[in-house]
Amino acid sequence: MFETRWIKLEVIGDEDLLQPDVFQLVEAARILSQDGFEVFPYTTDDLSVAERLVEVGCRVLMPLAAPIGSGRGLNNPFGLRALRSRFAHIPLIVDAGIGLPSHAAQAMELGFDGILLNTAVSKAGDPTNMAIAFAKAIEAGRMAYLANPMEPRDMASPSTPLHGRAVLI
Questions:
Q1: Cβ of 21: how many Cβ atoms within 10 Å?
Q2: Across 77-95, average pLDDT
Q3: What's the rounded Cα separation, in Å, for the pair 87 and 32?
Q4: What are the tens digits of pLDDT across the range 22-38?
Q5: Which residues touch 142 (CB under 8 Å, ≥6 apart)?
Q6: DSSP string, 9-23
Q7: Which strand (E) or helix (H) includes residue 54?
Q8: CB 105 within 8 A of CB 127
Q9: pTM of the predicted structure, to 2 decimals
Q10: From CA 63, how far away is CA 103, in angstroms rounded?
């Protein structure tokens, strides 16, 4: 009907949190992939599930950041970072839970390839300005990722050298 082989696949297992039923998701993705569709699965940040989805033919993964429509941001940055590391060759798109432009920037700083938005923009008091803010945050987050930012440290590190610096006694 839409003259595309792309299909976003959501198989909801929990009605309260709208989390995916990962077992049925993998099976549905397998069938649709065999039928020639490019499946974009709404999934969790679980590495084993992601591996199964790739094995059955998914060439894009769409993990949630938080429950759909919650606006909570990245509930598990560690899990999302692990996905990016493990699936460096697979496009990753955050599919749910983003509420603020800063959440989108954070996901992009982790190396994600895109953000799927709906509720955060449609429920904003000024959807047009919110969409513009998200576009700028996504661009800034991607630029930061590509700039190879410094790694966080546990200890302080001077940003200017101490040698040759004036000392007051």
A1: 14
A2: 96
A3: 21
A4: 999 999 999 999 999 99
A5: 108
A6: E--EEETTTTEE-HH
A7: helix 47-55
A8: no
A9: 0.88
A10: 14
The pair of three-digit structure tokens given for residue 36, joined into one six-digit string: 């020639």
Q: For the CA atoms of 15, 76, 145, 157, what is the dihedral angle to 10 degrees? A: 160
**pLDDT band at residue 121 under the 50/70/90 scheme:** very high
> Is 136 among the catalytic positions?
no
Q: What is the mean pLDDT of residues 94-99?
A: 95
pLDDT grade for 157, boundaries at 50, 70 and 90 = confident
Which DSSP letter does residue 152 get? P
- Whether the Cβ atoms of residue 129 and residue 120 lie closer than 8 Å to each other: no
Burial level of 41, CB count in 10 A (0-12/13-18/19+)?
Answer: buried
Catalytic pick from 5, 6, 8, 55? 8
